[in-house]
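Data availability (excerpt). The following record was deposited with the supplementary files.
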Amino acid sequence: MGWVRKLGFGVVAAGLAGGLVWAMWPQPVAVDLGVVTRGPMQGSVSAEGIALVREPYTVTATIAGSAARMPVHVGDAVLRGQSVVAIIRPADPALLDARSRLQAEAALTEAEAAVRLAEANLARAQDALAHAAVQLDRNRVLAERGAIPGRTLEDTVQAHRSAVIAVAAAQSEVELALAARDRMRAQLVAPAPRSDGNGAAPDSCCVQILAPQDGTVLEVAEPSARPVVPGTPLLVIGDLADLEVEVELLSSDAVRLAPGARAEISRWGGEGVLAAEVRRVDPAAFTRVSALGIEEQRVRVRLALLDPPEARPGLGDRYRVFARLILWEAEEVVQLPQSALFRSSGDWAVFVEAEGRAVLRGLRIGRQADGRAEVLGGLDPGDRVVLFPPSTLADGMAIAARTP
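Predicted structure:
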């Protein structure tokens, strides 16, 4: 019996020793693993943008006057040279205050008195002309008989000619006085009564402005009747079939774009992704303050939509979209997840899984985009690398793939 007890104690002691060794033995570090692959890779930059009509037309007032209530509304279709988009009528005369009216009435009284004076002068000149004509006829008869000298006849002819000129001058003075009276009367003309609801009397002359192009009314500055001067904006017309997209990029991203670069438009409200390409990159940047209060240099980039209008139903002017611009792309690129990279002795390195152990390996990388990095040397497709390597992981340590 004694030996059995000793054997039992030996077994227990051996089990405790084995458990202690097992507990003290280094365990594999649980890690996430990724695979080095070969395939297409793209470098891109994304930004929010807005869809804009490429060539909007702003219709402005051509003359000073009173614009009638707009005959078109936002969303109306118009035809070039046919649709009346605005009507401008002559402006009503201004109202006179009490002082101005009294001054105008006094000026009218003065003008009427000048007319009467001019008419009196005309009558006197006409009487003088009639007397000169009688004298001329009499002196001609006497001169033929030799009763008066020739010089007297010449003086009579000259007097008659002067009387004719005096009548013409008096007539002109009457016409001048009448015109001055009419001008004074015009100052007292009151605004015409409103009877058509558009700010002008019926049958008044007007200027009709026709649509400069086919399209849709995008904006009406003011639908109600109002006074306008030349150049006052009235409405904006654009072709919704001719849209482009405008995005604002950091200048450091814009320098890597060139006209013709491919782009994709998503989150525009409809189904699918719209194809686009860079049409223009503005040569000048502007300063924009970010939400964090940081001043950024931004550049406007214009994108041409390549899909037909039927592929983007409902997309309109100044609608919000999301643009992804392709900076570069390649078909066969050896690549790995960026999360596997870290710095070791100033160079890029990764931990490669080899027979259950982490092997430190340096490598050369190229371009990076969308969480992937291009491998230029040091790794081969199919290699498994440690993702998000912990700071405690060292070369040669045992590792095991973390299970979900």
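Summary of structural features: Confidence is low (pLDDT under 50) at residues 195-203.
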